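Hello, quick one for you while I still have it in my head. No rush at all, and the record is pasted right below.
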Amino acid sequence: MNSKLKVRVGQVGLFVAGGVATAAVGLGSAVASSAPSAHHDSASSAASIVDPNHSQKPIGTIYQRTELYFGTGRVNLPPVTDAQFETFVDATITPAFPDGLTELTGDGQFLGDSGPVQERSHEVILLYPTSDRTASNRIEKIRSDYKKQFEQESVLRDDSLDRVSF
């Protein structure tokens, strides 16, 4: 898949290992790591980061991870442009999650009413403390705003837990 990898400036790091991109929110000069959990069992993935000294003590803290997938294709309208999406990120997502986020851009496909549909899409990865009781409402507002502003049927949301270390 051809994809452009972009990391928004902020307290975010993006790491690619074995072709899998994972993200961690942290301080600019800190070291961060994250076990990929979007498509793995969260409990086993979160427990898989252990002390390199083999003490088997888990390293890091459990964070909530939300991945949002934004399509760009529209019926009877041109696709959402990269510039339009960047404006949306700057005006809507960044103020809701000012500590940082990771943005990935790529080509995706899904099965539509008339068969497979291929389109450019954007993925936003958010990591935030499990104690953040307002995050879900902010995320739902982001999804609703995007659907309304760009005439989209849906914005896919994928929630999981990650153990992250800064």
About this structure: The first strand starts at residue 3 and ends at 7. The beta strands are 3-7, 12-17, 20-25, 33-34, 61-71, 102-112, 115-129, 156-165. The helical segments are 42-47, 82-96, 135-150.
